[in-house]
Q: What sequence folds into this?
């Protein structure tokens, strides 16, 4: 077993058996990062000394007999999560010099579990993008082909796991920013139900949609990571107070009454007609159909369903998300932290120049959209209208879950596209998230797992959308699929 | 065969058509909103972002394209639909009225561009 291809459970067992120390494991991944990051640009910040110090503490903890399953395992964080003493840039010039004075809840939880912070991953600026090309620190490249994008906004996290530079990583998903890069890089990624992972210490983009979640090779690994990430936090006003769950509980036997040969017997999957229409690329459709056939062979049944309002998810999202972003990003004013323009006149001029210099083109565009739709005379026509459509989208899902247990379809309408192919046309870029945005608007959990390859040998993702709080069962379904397929074990050539 | 940019473009245009064309009538005949250069500059000022004339013109064209897409919302009748502000029905939590934060102003101000005597410095506002 090479550590970079091992599952988290295998790594945990090797650490527990003393076959491997956290220092050795962390050093192995740091070496891989040093070798590959110059061509992938998946990490913005790596601090080997800090990571190895955490690894030494993890080894001491293991020796003292107080280790948990993730103690000593390196985890990379998307650079949207504040980590005390670490530069936290959010992919922006605005925060290029910002060293966080505090830890995000998610960072605290991983530290408390004894995981080692392996580095901070590249991302689209302020998580606004679907290709990781809006980062101030340059684009991330797809490990399967360096001329293609890794997806976004959590492109660095996805590329890092795909290239085996990290055994696991964190991300955030506002309109698809975990699921889409997971699909385009051939790994597994989960956006949990809104409210189960604290947003405290996550740089805010669109607060009613933002949700943190994990990236890993497999669904089984995601379950272990979610056990650490999820949990109530009073410092996030939208954090849900719920009993702690064991998200690994469905990995062995996901559906009641199932047998070993047909572990998914009884599972009803809904296939939305709107996700299999004209916009879907034929190569992606083929891979997804084959994956669905595999799920049927495991005992699941499938039926066509309708989510009619989903067609309006992208327009509604591009009102709601920019509106919330324009408000959230007003905090970047050059006064308390972050970039300040070198030259300015009065206070307003200082704000205007600081923000003109600190934000990139896409972030400015979204702030302008948001400012406009919230401005006097347009609020009802745009913002309220979008919120009413959001309700219709959520109602569609509620109706669907009356007749099916889970929804299945493609994560993204195409495989990865070439760098630069869509940067000139924002609307074309926005349509990448056509199948992922509806779950964010409704607040539902979404999982993307590798489901084969399409044109150019680039990965395809299968998306499962579940009802609220159904993560454990979704991960169980993903795990059963991954027991009979090996797409998630494929490694990009050269890594 | 390697997927080319052109190929992706065709796929997406089809998606665009499916979503935003109603029958044979393209969306842009439905009085889509069109921003003027002055309006873009006014929005930029409200957003406190300095823009040159060239930047404002480029932004106008892109924003008008995005608003044309957003305009598709208007063809759905949403009368009587309750606006949904949030994914969960959440109410604000109450807590005991007690001190929960220690004074960390020195730590927090250590990352500020300009401070003096515990105060953030900005250009003079009142003469």
A:
């Amino acid at each position: 077993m090479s550590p970079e291809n091992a599952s988290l459970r295998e790594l945990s067992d090797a650490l527990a058996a003393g076959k491997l120390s956290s220092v050795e494991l962390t050093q192995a991944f740091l070496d891989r990062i040093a070798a590959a990051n110059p061509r992938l640009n998946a990490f913005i910040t790596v601090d080997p000394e800090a990571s190895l110090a955490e690894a030494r503490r993890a080894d001491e903890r293991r020796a003292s007999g107080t280790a948990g399953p993730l103690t000593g395992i390196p985890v990379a964080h998307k650079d949207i999560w504040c980590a005390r003493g670490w530069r936290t840039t959010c992919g922006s010039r605005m925060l290029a010099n910002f060293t966080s004075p505090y830890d995000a809840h998610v960072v605290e939880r991983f530290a408390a579990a004894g995981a080692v912070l392996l580095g901070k991953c590249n991302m689209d600026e302020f998580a606004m993008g679907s290709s990781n090309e809006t980062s101030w620190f340059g684009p991330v490249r797809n490990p399967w082909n360096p001329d293609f994008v890794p997806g976004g906004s959590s492109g660095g996290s996805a590329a890092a796991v795909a290239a085996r530079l990290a055994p696991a990583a964190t991300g955030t998903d506002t309109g698809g920013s975990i699921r889409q890069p997971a699909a385009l890089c051939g790994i597994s990624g989960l956006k949990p139900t809104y409210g189960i992972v604290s947003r405290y210490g996550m740089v805010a983009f669109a607060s009613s949609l933002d949700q943190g979640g994990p990236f890993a090779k497999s669904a089984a690994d995601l379950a272990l990571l979610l056990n650490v990430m999820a949990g109530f936090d009073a410092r996030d006003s939208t954090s849900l107070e719920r009993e702690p769950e064991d998200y690994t509980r469905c990995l062995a036997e996901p559906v009641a009454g199932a047998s070993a040969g047909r572990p998914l017997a009884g599972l009803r999957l809904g296939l939305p007609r709107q996700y299999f229409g004209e916009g879907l690329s034929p190569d992606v459709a083929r891979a997804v159909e084959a994956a669905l056939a595999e799920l049927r062979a495991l005992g699941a049944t499938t039926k066509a369903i309708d989510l009619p309002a989903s067609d309006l998810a992208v327009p509604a999202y591009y009102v709601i998300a920019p509106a919330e972003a324009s408000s959230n990003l007003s905090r970047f004013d050059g006064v308390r932290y972050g970039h300040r323009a070198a030259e300015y006149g009065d206070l307003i001029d200082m704000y205007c120049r600081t923000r003109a210099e600190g934000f990139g083109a896409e972030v400015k565009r979204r702030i302008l959209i948001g400012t406009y739709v919230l401005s006097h005379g347009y609020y009802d026509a745009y913002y309220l209208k979008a919120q009413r459509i959001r309700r219709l989208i959520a109602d569609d899902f509620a109706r669907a879950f009356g007749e099916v247990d889970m929804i299945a379809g493609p994560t993204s309408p195409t495989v990865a596209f070439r760098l630069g192919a869509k940067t000139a046309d924002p609307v074309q870029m926005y349509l990448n998230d056509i199948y992922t945005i509806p779950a964010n608007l409704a607040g539902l959990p979404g999982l993307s797992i590798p489901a084969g390859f399409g044109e150019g040998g680039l990965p395809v993702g299968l998306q499962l959308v579940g009802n609220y709080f159904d993560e454990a069962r979704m991960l169980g379904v993903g795990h059963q699929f991954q027991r009979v397929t090996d797409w998630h074990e494929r490694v990009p050539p050269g890594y | 065969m390697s997927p080319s940019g052109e190929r992706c473009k065709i796929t997406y245009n089809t998606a665009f058509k499916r979503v935003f064309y109603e029958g044979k009538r393209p969306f842009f005949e439905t009085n889509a909103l069109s921003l003027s250069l002055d309006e873009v500059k006014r929005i930029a000022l409200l957003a406190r972002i300095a823009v040159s004339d060239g930047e404002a013109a480029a932004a106008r064209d892109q924003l008008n394209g995005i608003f044309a897409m957003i305009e598709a919302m208007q063809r759905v009748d949403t009368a009587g639909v309750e606006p949904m502000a949030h994914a969960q029905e959440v109410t604000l939590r109450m807590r005991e009225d007690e001190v929960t934060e220690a004074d960390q102003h020195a730590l927090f101000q250590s990352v500020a561009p300009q401070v003096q005597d515990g105060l953030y410095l900005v250009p003079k506002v009142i003469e």
